[in-house]
Design a protein that fits this description.
This protein is mainly α. The longest helix is centred in the C-terminal third of the chain and has 29 residues. About 10% of the residues are buried.
């Protein structure tokens, strides 16, 4: 967002919502993204904003890996919940 400010854009008026792209790359259709998944994504995005980007962002790698693991765990739990719900309806 700081880059947007440097270009003369007010970052509070613009955002780069990449959550749909991240979900797609993880194999999660955007329509299946849960609010829990989205909140985890947004929490890590906020944390990433607190880091100074150095060495082409390599200092964010550990944070990104942790985020990925939590998003994957959330997606798997959501999938299991859907399976259990559909079994219960049968």
């Amino acid at each position: 967002m700081k880059g947007l400010s440097r270009l003369g854009f007010h970052s509070e008026k613009y955002n780069m919502d990449l959550s749909g792209i991240v979900a797609e790359l993880m194999g999660i259709p955007e329509i299946e993204m849960s609010w829990n998944w989205f909140y985890i994504y947004m929490d890590f995005l906020k944390k990433a904003g607190e880091y100074k980007t150095i060495d082409e962002g390599k200092n964010l790698l550990t944070l990104a890996e942790t985020c990925y693991k939590q998003l994957t765990t959330c997606a798997q739990a959501e999938k299991e919940n859907k399976k259990e719900t559909s079994r219960a309806k049968s």
